[in-house]
Each structure stands twice: as C-alpha cells, then as structure tokens.
Amino acid sequence: MERLQKVMAHAGVASRRKSEELIKEGRVKVNGETVTELGKQVSHSDKIEVDDIPVEREEPVYFLMNKPRNTITAVADDKGRRVVTDFFPMIEQRIYPIGRLDYDTTGALILTNDGDFAQQLMHPKNMVKKTYIAKVKGIVTKKAIRQLEKGVVIDKRKTAPAKTKIISTDIQKDTTMVELIIHEGRNHQVKKMFDAVGYPVKKLTREAYGNLSVKGLNSGEWRELKHHEVNQLRELSKKEG
After folding, report:
1. Neighbours of 53 (CB within 10 A)
2. Which residues form the RNA-binding S4 domain (predicted)?
C-alpha cells in the first residue's frame, strides 16, 4: 500500500505536491469514490481517476541522455523542432526531462516518468552538482575565475559560489575552455554568469549531473539508470547548503 499522491506522482500525473492539490480540490476518485483526504492509501488493484480519466500506472523509469545540439528539452514542440523524447521511440512510458538544457547546449539530461523524483531534483534547495564545460570568447583571467567562485549577480540576484577552473586557452582563436560546477538551476545561468564577467559562451555542454557522467554516451544516446544511481540522486537532493 502507498499514499495516493505518491502513486499519482509515479504515474506521471503531476508532482506529489500538485497531486495533493488535485486531491484537495476533489478531482480524484478511488474505486469510484471522491477522495479529499491526503492520507489515503491505495493498492495496485485500486482504480484511480483524475477528472474522471483513469490513471494508467507505470513502473517508474529513469534515463540519462547525452542531449545533442539543436534539440528542444521538452516532449513536444509547436514549431515541429526535434525534442529529446524523439530519441526514445521504443519506450512506452510517458517520460519527460527534468529541468532544461538550452537548444544549443549539449550533455547530461535526466528523463523520467516519476513526478515526485522530478520535483525533488528541481527543488531550489537541491544540492546536486552540475558540471559544465564552456568554450568562451576571450582569455579568461584569474580575477574572473575568482568572481565566478564567489558568485556574480544575474537577474538582480547573486549566484551561489561555484567551483571553477581553466582547462585550456587558445590565444590564436582568442578562446578559453572552462569547467564550472554549480548546484543551482536558474534560467540560462551558466551563460549569464560568463556574460557577467565579460566572456560570452560560444559552446556549452553539461558533462555531468551529480556523479552521472555522459562519458561513453555519444550525442543522442542514452542509458537507463541503475537502482543505486537513482537512490544516490535522491540522497544528494536532500542535502542543503
């Protein structure tokens, strides 16, 4: 037996918090009876409906993908552009990406049908580190590195301290390769951070999400996460700075 909102989240209906709101609003039925109490326990044989639409329960699945360039981090696009779920034609579950990577950004992306897990990883207090490799215009100075490490102001708010190191420089092409490790997930954060210190990003990849690296995965390839990897992400996301 499991709590109703947890089962709904695992089925991909919504996050656990949103599922709780649906229950409170009287939009959920179990075996034909409306449920408004959050403590309701259900078994696998119970019939669940949301707005009179049966909930198809799915086993939770978790994937790590090496997202290619020119791909939308979504399950559909009204302009007909390629989306990340296009790379999972054989997966029957209704998976979706956790968080976003820009259209031209590549690298580690997690997809799942577990709404509760997704909500946990996207929570503002989530401390799972994300490792980025950025190719930026200009030869980055030690002063700029120190600024990034202390935090810079973007969108009127200072970023959390980041771990930063220069990987290589190309004086002829006037570019620098920089590794940046952050745990926040603000909109266009990495690009804005480099803009703030005067080094526009020319190319960006997320090399790792937590301890999950995309090494060994070609662009567009993915693999299913192992049980211990999922548990590790859950534990990391509970930690607060």
Report:
1. 10
2. 2-63
**Whether residue 48 is found in the same domain as residue 163:** no
For 223, the token pair is: 């693999």
The verdict on 229 and 116 lying in the same domain is yes
| Catalytic (active-site) positions | 102
* 139 and 184 part of one domain: yes
Q: What is the pLDDT of residue 131?
A: 97
Q: What is the pLDDT of residues 216-229, one digit of tens each?
A: 999 999 999 999 99
Same domain, 139 and 185: yes
User: What's the pLDDT score for residue 238?
Assistant: 75
Say if residue 134 is in the same domain as residue 204. Answer: yes
The 3 state secondary structure assigned to 138-184 is: CCCCHHHHHHHHHCCEECCEECCCCEEEEEEEECCCCEEEEEEEECC
Question: What's the domain range around 12?
Answer: 2-54
77 and 48 housed in the same domain: no
Q: Give dist(CA 205, CA 69) in Å, integer.
A: 9
Residues 136, 82 share a domain: no
Whole-model pTM? 0.81
- Please name which of 6, 42, 208 lies closest in space to residue 114, comparing C-alpha atoms: 6
Residue 100 CA to residue 184 CA, distance in Å, equals 12
pLDDT digits (tens, 9 = 90+) for 45-78: 899 999 999 998 878 899 999 999 999 999 999 9
